[in-house]
Amino acid sequence: MPQTDLKQQLVERFREVNGDHPMTGADDAYVSVQFVPLEELCAVRGREADAVRRLMLGRRLPLPGYLRSDGAEMVPADLFDLADEAGSTHLLEAWFTAHWDDPITGKAEWDAYLSGQYVCLHSVTPATIQRKEYLTAAIGAAANEPDAASEQWSERLHALIDELDALEPAFTAYDRLRFGGPTSRDTSIDAMRARFPRP
User: Fold this and answer.
1) Residue 136 and residue 49: Cα distance in Å, rounded?
2) DSSP state letter for 110
3) Is 49's pLDDT higher than 50?
């Protein structure tokens, strides 16, 4: 299959998952800082871009996080790291899903990982996915704690927010289009800091 066909298939799969939203100049600039073009990463890591596209289409590696306006498939710099840790792309799914006690949850997280939509983390690993989930839940529940608004409560809340802040990038306007609303940074970091200012 010619490269152009594989690349077009990947573009089509990306749009199936994310919808067809235009990337602005600001989106492109953000993505170019946070991610790398697939072909550049492959050149650095000694991989063939076509082979990697096949792995993405075959549900062995995640889809690109973004398609830049110039058509570049933008991927995280650590795209291959989890497969290397697992032993190969063929072993990756079993290795990845084993990090969850519940197989159904593990499979759902694997599907989410393959979507390429975990652009909400600087580094996507089972540990950071689980930590983000814990932090967003704890931050969301904080207002209902018995000692809410006390100084100790505020310290605990802001420690959680600061930890989440360190895990998450800034996001871009494109993300709010494809996710159909605010990002986790909007709701769990920025809104909570505005609602409960540091004492």
Assistant:
1) 35
2) H
3) yes
